[in-house]
């Protein structure tokens, strides 16, 4: 992709700052404004009445919405977890085939009271993972506010959870925690004899419609929302990144109708400062 296709330095963007990363998008405001006249109808740019497409009642049919939710979750994870010694990744399962998400959330709430009684204040992001048979697993990222080194023995975790199998994993600084977690939640493993295959994104089809499948404790920090030009934002943070050298860029055309389209761009920058090479400023 040549420089002409990057978001320009003085172009207004929407974005986020999380962890040591900036995410920019050139989708600012409504690119194709229409006048809504009812829940089912709107007036298009030509003044003609059109009907909205029926909203899917099954979340597995609305993968685009689910992907956006996963992106939001990924930002929260990357902003709050980096594989430090006071962080854990845990898995909680049920011995029985529990399909009631309300029960799962209720059990997890009671479980967290026990965790904090034994280990002090722990911040968390918890996520429900659907299984093919309809049952739920819980995955959670824990962060201790008290201990520099935090660990829960598998045997003690199982005693506190008491509903089924559990697993504790220490994530390392070298792990990309957000990518690891979201891949774990969206991909499906298939086993055929000795052959194992990972189907990317296949688990997304198992999530039910309209469900809030992740929750977090009050101490989890929100990614910072940004709006301005790239030049202004780079200057605000004292960064020396090149506006024409994002670490990653994704783009695709959005159909606006009437033969018009909009090139949607998302750029990602690791925040670099004066005197830095490739790493984010630790301060």
From TrEMBL:
Domain Replication-associated protein ORF2/G2P: from-to ranges: 88-187
Pfam families: REP_ORF2-G2P
Protein name as catalogued: Replicative protein
Organism whose genome encodes this protein: Oceanobacillus piezotolerans
Record lineage: Bacteria, Bacillati, Bacillota, Bacilli, Bacillales
């Amino acid at each position: 992709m040549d420089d002409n296709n990057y978001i320009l330095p003085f172009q207004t963007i929407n974005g986020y700052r999380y962890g040591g990363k900036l995410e920019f998008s050139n989708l600012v405001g409504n690119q194709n404004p229409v006048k809504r006249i009812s829940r089912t109808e709107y007036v298009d740019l030509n003044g003609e009445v059109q009907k909205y497409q029926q909203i899917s009642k099954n979340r597995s049919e609305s993968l685009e919405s689910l992907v956006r939710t996963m992106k939001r979750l990924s930002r929260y994870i990357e902003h709050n977890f980096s594989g430090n010694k006071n962080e854990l990744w845990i898995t909680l399962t049920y011995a029985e085939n529990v399909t009631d998400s309300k029960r799962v959330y209720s059990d997890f709430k009671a479980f967290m009271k026990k965790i904090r009684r034994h280990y002090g204040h722990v911040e968390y992001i918890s996520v429900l993972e659907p299984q093919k048979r309809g049952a739920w697993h819980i995955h959670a990222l824990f962060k201790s506010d008290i201990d520099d080194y935090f660990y829960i023995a598998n045997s003690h975790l199982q005693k506190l959870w008491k509903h089924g199998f559990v697993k504790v994993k220490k994530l390392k600084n070298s792990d990309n925690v957000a990518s690891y977690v979201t891949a774990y939640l969206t991909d499906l493993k298939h086993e055929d004899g000795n052959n194992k295959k990972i189907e990317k994104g296949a688990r997304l089809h198992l999530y039910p419609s309209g469900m809030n499948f992740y929750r977090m404790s009050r101490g989890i920090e929100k990614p910072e929302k940004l709006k301005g030009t790239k030049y202004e934002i780079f200057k605000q943070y004292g960064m020396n990144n090149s506006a024409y050298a994002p670490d990653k860029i994704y783009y695709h055309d959005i159909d606006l109708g009437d033969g018009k389209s909009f090139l949607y761009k998302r750029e990602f920058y690791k925040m670099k400062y004066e005197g830095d090479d490739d790493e984010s400023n630790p301060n």
